[in-house]
Structures are given as structure tokens and as C-alpha cells.
Design a protein that fits this description.
Keywords: Amino-acid biosynthesis, Histidine biosynthesis, Metal-binding, NAD, Oxidoreductase, Zinc. The protein is built from 18 helices and 14 strands. The chain has 454 residues and is of the alpha/beta class. The protein folds into four domains: 155 residues, Rossmann fold (3-Layer(aba) Sandwich); 44 residues, no CATH class; 168 residues, Nitrogenase molybdenum iron protein domain (Rossmann fold); 29 residues, no CATH class.
């Protein structure tokens, strides 16, 4: 077992930029720029494409082929990249197989899914946009209308683990929004589209379209459509670097939720925090491997306590080695001057997850503008949001929550305005339209008003 280490940073000196630089360096290391690939990835790329390609070039090639060749390219890449030789008829999981998986699944899991579904539905229904109509003056009706996106595609990972939680956190908000058609894609692996728990979850939620394909080829098939899979209007859900790059590439042909990178958390804690709790929360993100896990505190004694707890807890965890490596590469224990500086540092990083384990967390969240999802108090671990609380766990990463929002039922609505004027109301506002239109030289616009005012 490798020795545990995590970098510590003393940020109390106002003339030192160590903490800011540390956070920036961590973000850069986790940035999904698409120019790095593992040795295994390089070997597979050479084998499949006959030459070394960057991940961006790989994705461009796959998406171009699937767009032009359709199902045949999808099946070819499913075989060469995932090692699964399927026919066009075998891509879609039969409904009977979904039913069989549901019948075979652990009864406790099914009951759990039902309870979690109720939690998600309750929250997502409460925040769902509703049509708004105003009548600012006689004869004028102005409406902002919301309609659900017709067809949505969901990416569910299936490489190292099965993720029924991803199905719930993406499909249920879409269902609350009123999406008519939901298609799930998952790689043809024991953790993906051959996984009983994942298939049972789909059946429990009423999802009838599940396809055995993953990676960039599945994203391309959903975006462009093919004989085996009708195109969707929006693609959501997590995935590896190739999935993220493919989603970025097809954006514009379809909508996407985000261009997401590895998971991340910042924990802000004071002297009231339990070091064992804090350590467990850092490890929970680190076990995504890669995953960034950072503690910011102004209690110097807590640093040593948490470091000790990390070393102890890692020894008892099944994925301890993975989490240990991630903490060494992407973790940090930062000592701040006070709560205000802790909030400033957090805002500069704009983390996907923010956990505030202090005596009065409500006062600190008011000072922080940028976090994908915040969890307040000693008894609100991020895992609650990952699995059961109600908000979706699909969140912006890499500092993008400065401008991006997490997935919600509203992500599946398209808004549009509806305007209605009576003849008298048009006569009142018409001269203003004519004045501006004529200034812009758009005389046909002006005439479309004046012709109605004879």
C-alpha cells in the first residue's frame, strides 16, 4: 500500500498567492482540454485508426463517420472500441429484457428507487417554470410560454461501475418537464447496458428506449440520427473525455447540458467540524479518480486532524488506492486567515460541489456566489445530492458554474414568447415602431405597422 500524501498551503499571508496558484493549478490539471491520453488510449487509437491521434481528432473522426455512414459506423466503432460485435437489431435492448431485469433486481433497490423518484419529482416540480402572462395595458397580452423539448438522449457511463443514479438524476427531471421521448445509451459492458440494476431502473422509470452503445459514437448517433436510433434534440449525462468532447462537437446540431470534467469539491470547515466527517467528504469526491478534493479552514489544528483521518480512512476503503492517488494529485488542505478569505478563495475556484461544515453555514453561503451545488451543515454530505435529496447531481465543473447551472427540469423546457395586440393597442405603440424601423432603414418593417393604421 502506497504512502499517503496531500499538499498543504498556508494562505494567511496576504502577500502570498500560493493558495490562489494552487487552486488554479489544480483546475488546470483537471481541465478537459483534450490533449492528454493514457498509454492504453494511445495504443487503442493506433490500433483502431492506424495512426496516433489526439482525443479531439479521434472524436472528430468518429462523429464525421457516424454522421455520413450512420448505423454501420456506429456498429463498427462499437466493435473496435468496446469489443462488442452487435447487429443493428441488437443495438436496442428489447422491452422483454428490461422487464426481466426489473423482475430479477433486488427488491430493496426497486423500493429505494421509488422513494428517491418521489424526492426528485417533488423538488423538480416545485421549481418548474410556469407560463407567465401580463397585460401591461388595455388590449395587450404578453406571455412567456414554456414547452418541453420533444426528445432527449441520456448518456449513462458503464466502464468501472454501474450508475442507476445517473438514470434517475437525468431522466426524472426530463419526465417532470414533460419530455415525450427519452433514449438512454450505455456502453455494451457488464456495468453498462448489460447491467441488471441499470436496466431495472430504466424499466421502473418507464424508459423504453435503451441502446447498447457508448462513447463518442453514441453521442454522434443521438445527435445526427441513424436507422437504428432516431436523432434527439438534447443530450445530457456524464461520460469520459471522449464523450465530453463529442458533446461539445455536436452542440449546435443539438443542445447539451454542459461540457463537464472530473468531479470536484471544496469543504469549508471551522473548529466545530468533525475531522472524521471532513475526511470522509474529501475521500468521497477523490474516489471518482480523478476527482478534486480541497479543504479550506482557518482552524490550524483541523488541518492535522483531517490529514490523520484521511490516512486512517483510506486504509479501510475498497477504492482507497484510487482515492489516495487522486488526493495526492488533485487534493489540498488550505489554511486561510479567516472565514472571509475562505469564501474569497472558494469563489475564485467556483467548485462543482461546496460543502460548508461550520457553526453557522447560512452566513457563509451568502458570501459565495459561485458553486454548482452547496451543502450546508455537519449532516449534509454531498452524497445526499449525488443520490437522493432531489436536485440533480449533473453539475457544471471546472469553474463553469460562474455562468452555467446544474441540470434541472427547467433544462428540458424551451421558452418562447406569445404576443397579442388589439387594433387600438397597435395604434398606440405603432408610431414608436415606425420611428425606430425608419432610423434603421427597414422601411418594410415600418410599413407592416402603418398599413394597419389606415
Amino acid at each position: 500500500m502506497s504512502e499517503f500524501s496531500i499538499q498543504t498551503v498556508d494562505a494567511r499571508d496576504p502577500s502570498s498567492d500560493d493558495a490562489v496558484e494552487t487552486l488554479a493549478a489544480l483546475r488546470e490539471k483537471l481541465s478537459p482540454r483534450g490533449d492528454l491520453v493514457s498509454p492504453r488510449g494511445r495504443e487503442l487509437t493506433q490500433k483502431v485508426f492506424g495512426k496516433p491521434l489526439t482525443p479531439v481528432e479521434v472524436v472528430e473522426t468518429i462523429c464525421r463517420d457516424v454522421q455520413s455512414e450512420g448505423t454501420s459506423a456506429l456498429l463498427r466503432y462499437t466493435k473496435s472500441l468496446d469489443g462488442a460485435e452487435l447487429s443493428a437489431d441488437e443495438l436496442r435492448v428489447p422491452e422483454e429484457e428490461l422487464k426481466a431485469a426489473h423482475a430479477k433486481a433486488d427488491g430493496n433497490l426497486i423500493e429505494t428507487i421509488r422513494r428517491i423518484r418521489d424526492n426528485i419529482v417533488e423538488f423538480q416540480s416545485a421549481i418548474l417554470h410556469r407560463d407567465v402572462t401580463i397585460t401591461p395595458r388595455r388590449g395587450v397580452s404578453l406571455t412567456q410560454r414554456y414547452v418541453p423539448i420533444p426528445r432527449v438522449g441520456i448518456c449513462v457511463p458503464g466502464g468501472a461501475a454501474a450508475y442507476p443514479s445517473t438514470v434517475m438524476m437525468t431522466a426524472i427531471p426530463a419526465q417532470v418537464a414533460g419530455v415525450d421521448e427519452i433514449a438512454v445509451v450505455a456502453p455494451p459492458t457488464p456495468f453498462g447496458s448489460y447491467n441488471t440494476d441499470m436496466l431495472a431502473t430504466c424499466h421502473e422509470l418507464g424508459i423504453k428506449e435503451v441502446y447498447r452503445c457508448g462513447g463518442a459514437q453514441a453521442v454522434a448517433a443521438m445527435a445526427y440520427g441513424c436507422d437504428a436510433m432516431p436523432a434527439v434534440d438534447k443530450i445530457v449525462g456524464p461520460g469520459n473525455l471522449f464523450v465530453a468532447l463529442a458533446k461539445k462537437l455536436v452542440f449546435g446540431t443539438v443542445d447539451i447540458d454542459s461540457f463537464a470534467g472530473p468531479s470536484e469539491v471544496i469543504v469549508i470547515a471551522d473548529e466545530s467540524a468533525d475531522a472524521a466527517f471532513v475526511a470522509s467528504d474529501l475521500i468521497a469526491q477523490a474516489e471518482h479518480s480523478p476527482g478534486s478534493a480541497i479543504l479550506i479552514t482557518w482552524d490550524e489544528s483541523l488541518i492535522a486532524k483531517v490529514e490523520s483521518e484521511l490516512a486512517e480512512q483510506l486504509q479501510a476503503l475498497e477504492r482507497g488506492d484510487l482515492a489516495r492517488d487522486a488526493l495526492a494529485d488533485f487534493g489540498a488542505l488550505i489554511l486561510a486567515r479567516d472565514a472571509d478569505q475562505a469564501c474569497e478563495l472558494t469563489d475564485s475556484f467556483a467548485p462543482e460541489h461546496l460543502q460548508i461544515e461550520t457553526r453557522n453555514p447560512e452566513s457563509l453561503i451568502e458570501k459565495i456566489r459561485h458553486s454548482g451545488a452547496a451543502f450546508l451543515g455537519h449532516h449534509t454530505p454531498v452524497a445526499l445530492g449525488d443520490y437522493a435529496a432531489g436536485p440533480s447531481h449533473v453539475l457544471p465543473t471546472g469553474g463553469t458554474c460562474r455562468w452555467a447551472a446544474g441540470l434541472s427540469a427547467n433544462s428540458f423546457l424551451r421558452s418562447g414568447s406569445v404576443t397579442q395586440f388589439t387594433e387600438s393597442a397597435l395604434a398606440e405603440i405603432g408610431p414608436d415602431v415606425i420611428t425606430v424601423a425608419e432610423k434603421e432603414g427597414l422601411t418594410a418593417h415600418a410599413r407592416s405597422i402603418s398599413i394597419r393604421q389606415r
